[in-house]
Write a structure and sequence with these properties.
transport, 10 helices, Cation_efflux_CTD, three-stranded mixed β-sheet, membrane, 2 domains, about 65% helix, alpha/beta, about 375 residues, Alpha-lytic protease prodomain-like
Length: about 375
């Protein structure tokens, strides 16, 4: 993402947080009035949930503001992960509010109190549903229009949808208790608190996954693969690794296999062109590593073919790279790395025994085999 686009994104994120803050303050006032008039623990629980939402909006504003700070000595990859932190803190607050009112609702089950009948309470609850529904739609539209998806705003949107559902349940509970006299307010409060806790758990999980790191968008990987495949003069590529330091801060590394007869200047020009294309198309800073492959040696080409046929006989998705022959005065060493498909559960030690046995059976024992195993790379070719 370009710097100007990032500034626009942050500006929209802060505006979204401010709008949510003002809206939730209004909702807190409405629900507190309704809860006090109706003497309802479930309505008061929902009011405190909206109070938590005001803090969530503040955290969202702070998260976008911090995320916009440039890289510095202590944070060389920038501050964009602050958005993930704001989403995580928001989820923790949601969970804390849910836990507190779970306790209060259980207490009211054992010591039930009737709620007060008032048309104003019903009007205020319906108004809160309409406001919260509008806020959820606002969050949805903003998140959809933002250049890069925001977990923090998605958390706010989900919380608003939970609130709408809870308000509907509270209205039904209020109508049942005022019409039939059934003291179900405490039970409904438990139900509301459980929904809050579930939403908090889901949001904590999503934000934690962003902080820990998740698999990149497959469509992005496919587009990067297309760029690499467009360079016909490459022998191949492997070990593409993508590092994400925020919603739009990506760094990547890849090993580029080239003909060993290339001079360094030509190799540098090719890798430099690849890195520039990644930066222009994806705003990704790519670092390339050269792997020279010997192509003008009949014996090495025959070894390469034997290894490929052996691995493909196990599974068509097996690949290998970093193939090289190391000749010394006393011994010949054959090195290569094997990329193990996700579907293969065999241990590296078992694979090593099988591969060496099969290759030695075909080429004899002239070479000492040195095999490294790669698993779970983002992309291997």
């Amino acid at each position: 993402m370009r710097q100007n686009e990032q500034r626009i994104r942050v500006k929209e994120g802060i505006r979204t947080g401010i709008f949510g803050l003002i809206t939730n303050i209004i909702l807190v006032i409405i629900k507190l009035i309704a809860g006090l008039i109706g003497n309802s623990v479930s309505i008061m629980a929902d009011a405190m949930n909206s109070l938590g939402d005001t803090f969530n909006s503040i955290l969202t504003i702070m998260g976008f503001h911090i995320a916009n700070k440039p890289a510095d000595r202590e944070h060389p990859y920038g501050h964009q992960r602050a958005e993930y932190l704001s989403g995580l803190f928001t989820a923790i607050i949601i969970s804390f509010v849910g836990l507190q009112f779970l306790i209060s609702s259980i207490q009211k089950i054992f010591k039930p109190e009737g709620i007060n009948r008032s048309p104003l309470v019903l009007i205020l609850l319906i108004l809160s549903i309409l406001i919260k529904g509008g806020l959820a739609y606002f969050y949805y539209k903003k998140n959809k229009n933002m250049a890069v998806h925001s977990t923090a705003i998605e958390t706010l949107m989900k919380d608003s949808l939970y609130d709408m559902f809870m308000n509907l349940v509270i209205i039904l509970s209020y109508l049942v208790e005022t019409q039939f006299g059934w003291l179900i307010d405490g039970y409904v409060g438990v139900f509301v608190a459980a929904i809050i806790l579930r939403g908090g758990y889901d949001s904590i999980k999503d934000s934690s996954n962003d902080l820990l790191g998740t698999r990149p968008d497959p469509n992005l990987i496919y587009q990067m693969e297309e760029v690499l495949n467009s360079y016909d003069n490459l022998v191949g590529y492997h070990d593409l690794v993508l590092h994400k330091y925020g919603p739009n801060m990506f760094f990547a590394t890849v090993d580029i296999e080239v003909d060993s007869r290339w001079d360094l200047l030509h190799a540098h020009q090719v890798t430099d062109a690849i890195e520039k294309e990644f930066k222009d198309k994806f705003a990704i800073l790519l670092a390339t590593h050269l792997d020279p492959i010997v192509l003008n040696n009949d014996e090495q080409n025959a070894l390469y073919k034997v290894i490929k046929e052996t691995l493909k006989s196990y599974d068509k998705n097996f690949h290998f790279h970093d193939f090289r022959v190391e000749e010394t005065a006393t011994v010949s060493n054959l090195h290569f790395d094997v990329v193990v498909p996700d579907s293969i559960t065999t241990s590296d030690e078992e694979l090593y025994q099988k591969i060496t046995h099969d290759i030695y059976h075909k080429i004899g024992y002239k070479y000492h085999l040195y095999i490294e195993f790669d698993r779970n790379y983002v992309l291997s070719k």
